[in-house]
Amino acid sequence: MSDAKPLPTPPYDHLFVIDGSGYIFRAYFALKTPMTTSQGVPVSAVFGFTNMLLKFLRDNEAGGLVVVFDAGKRTFRNDIYADYKANRPDPPEDLIPQFAIVREAAEACGLPIIELENYEADDIIATLARQAREACVQVTIVSSDKDLMQLVGDGVDMLDPIRNTPIQVEQVEEKFGVPPEKVVDVQALAGDSVDNVPGVPGIGVKTAAELIRTYGDLDTLLARASEIKQPKRRERLLEFADQARISRQLVALDAQVPLPNGLESWIKPDPDPDKLRRFLEAYEFRSTLARLSDQLGLKPEAGSKASLPEPGSGAEYELIQDWPALDAWIAAANESGVVAIDTETTSLDPQQAELVGISLSVTEGQGCYIPVGHRSPVGGDGNLDFDGSDAPKQLPRDAVLEKLAPLLSDDAVLKVGQNLKYDMRVLARYGVAVTPIDDTMLLSYVLEGGVHGHGMDELSKLHLGHTPISYKEVAGSGRNQVTFDRVPLDKALDYAAEDADVTLRLWRALKPRLTQARVTTVYETLERPLVPVLLEMERTGIKVDREHLRRLSNDFAQRIDTLEREIHQLAGRSFTIGSPKQLGEVLFDEMGLDGGGRKGKSGAYSTGADILEMLAAQGHDLPRRVLDWRQLTKLKSTYTDALQQQINAETGRVHTTFSQAVASTGRLSSNDPNLQNIPIRTEEGRKIREAFVAEAGCQLLSVDYSQIELRLTAHIADVAALRDAFEQGQDIHAMTASQVFGVPLAEMDPATRRRAKAINFGIIYGISPFGLAQNLGITQGEARSYIQAYFEQFPGIRDYMDSMKALGREQGWVETLFGRKVHVPALKEKNPARRAFGERAAINAPIQGTAADIIKRAMIHVPPALTRAGLSAKLLLQVHDELLFEVREAELEETKALVKQVMENACAPVVTLSVPLVADAGVGESWATAH
């Protein structure tokens, strides 16, 4: 060491070293709800990682800063012990593509990064800590990884980034029972099942700490092992002494890593606002961007259009409080032929919202607000003023609606709105119809589905370069937020009139682009005519048997209670079943079950469904009961309890909301409540669907497209064998199994057919060998051979997949049979993970998008067909490829035949398929019996 050159003195006195690899996993498991971009790229870990980084930068004054990542799985430790980390499972499939993106996140935040082949991040961190100590620089390691705790002391501490708590000598001694300099000896004895560090069998951390405290260090302990009184402990230490020494080499960090740069390189830089903004926009972290907009000047890029004039500085907004003023605006709208409209209400639930006011705009830069339901605003002390002394001046609601109704239903005046279905549904409750319409949200969705979101604020910033007034600015936030009827009229005017003004400007910017983009037909024949259909479905709702749900909830509660008692009895004690930490301790520490006892970075055992399923398959009762307990508790909280609260008191029905502008492929989504995700494959799930019932004298009719995406694959990819099978009405999965695995149809067994079915459906979604292996419980090698055999038998599918990827890369989008453009910007990304997701999207979008277009066409055509036939059936729900109707019993057969006919011919006359569409119908008193 005496010949080593002294390190340059860095221009800071405190270096923060962020354990980037540890951050990734902490971020991934901290977010319970998976997140994906509009292109389907998983970003849960990236989102958490980015926000943790930004929070750290905000909360800590760091002079020096560097982020350290693992460069790969193999390091010098594998040369010492070949099985090092051999038992570690592969990361979750949706986490793998995020590793590269988190590096982008660090770069977007302006942070320097270190990663070196053959060395773990922990070794790099140890080296940085040594260098900093030698340069008299304080070091804080931002991590809670126990393996790094051996570095604590002598100017080095740690910071848990999740809990924001320090880890110093005291905390290390509390965890390991020894000071930091003895941690390596304790770990060498105890081993680590996660990293496959063998240690000495039968010796845990507590025993190891006791031994090291008694004998001072590992070498002394092993030299004097024959003196130990406990026979088993003595025998194991003597037998596995060399294994303990090897383990010490594995857990001891290498502080002599040849780093490419010195300490002077790790100066904390200031983030580049533009670079950070581009990253946040690219991965659609809009909430983060909004939160940082003022702090770092991260304003979204303006569009090419001029900014809107701000209220009071160019825009002319008028508060309507008398009849002549309202008459003047109605006359202006009639003369213009186009009027933008927006409503303000007391709730986001249109089934219960009370109308508070209406805003109109007929000329850009001008707008009006007609208050009809405002009450006294909240006073400065937060209390409502009920004495009426400052009651707002406004026209009576019913009289205003009577005046506006002819305009809103006049075929000669186009009504323009943003997400207009909501406003139409609110007004329909007051007996006011709105027609004809244009919707700027749907215009944007048809033009640029998959490119960005389609909310008004985002579109305004993108196309108009203008940030509208936020709801929080006028109504407050958190506990102080009021409903809109309590907003003072001056604030309500600026907010509401601006919405109508912005909507009109967006319409003028977007509508002409339909022709240029050649998507007019998609908008005019699919999206816009679907609005009144969805509106009627939402208003109608579906009847729900509250008593059935209550009984189910009670039944689930009793079964949950029984399972809890059985689980506690099997465990030998009570514990919190919903706690992964406590469950892991019971399964692996106390019961000693084999095969799943791997710990994460936090030190807690993994108890995911995959682990429990594996243990249950080995014949263990407790994990099987825990799986049952988890399923029942989720069903109870998500469905049987929650749905009871969502039954409308006036109608006795549940009224979901269908969203058109969410999925880039054109699929509808259901929310508040989501009725598309009610499970149907389990008995409990079917019992939940039994709660959805028909009115007296009616039945529920379910009509479902049979294997529509496979049929479309056969047509679009031009696969003759699949086309012929569908044309002849063969069992498509049995036929595929016969072709791929060479098994005659007469000798087909269920297991072989199931493999073929998994491949058939998986290919559509670009399934990987890993995914297929998981589905079928086989090795990845077997799965890979199955997929290869499939492509060899059906080369047209491989050709189709290659052509869609190439076409998508060339033009940035792929297309459904009906002309819907599904943009896939990820195809042109340099990042391999994002590009791979883009390729899968490009393959799937024409198939799934065409299926979505077909069922939308059926939904548009069925109601008028029923009317022409004099039938009274009501369309209630659309769930994936299924339509659900409520039908009078006397009209059942005629309605079933008509709906099947319309659905099976929904493509005509626009598209002619080379395979038949088949719709299967079922009837019952409940959804469960009908489907």
Characterise this structure.
The protein is α/β, with parallel strands linked by helices and 931 residues long. The chain folds into four domains: 14-265, 3-Layer(aba) Sandwich (Rossmann fold); 316-517, Nucleotidyltransferase, domain 5; 545-646, Taq DNA Polymerase, Chain T, domain 4 (Up-down Bundle), CATH 1.20.1060; 712-821, 5' to 3' exonuclease, C-terminal subdomain (DNA polymerase, domain 1), CATH 1.10.150.20. A six-stranded mixed sheet has the order 3-2-1-4-5-6. The protein has a six-stranded mixed sheet with strand order 7-10-9-8-11-12, with helices on both faces. A hairpin with a 4-residue loop joins β9 (355-361) and β10 (366-371). α28 (708-716) packs across α35 and α34 packs across α35. The chain is globular, with a radius of gyration of 32 Å. The protein starts with 13 loop residues before the first strand and ends with a helix. 43% of the residues are buried. This is DNA polymerase I.
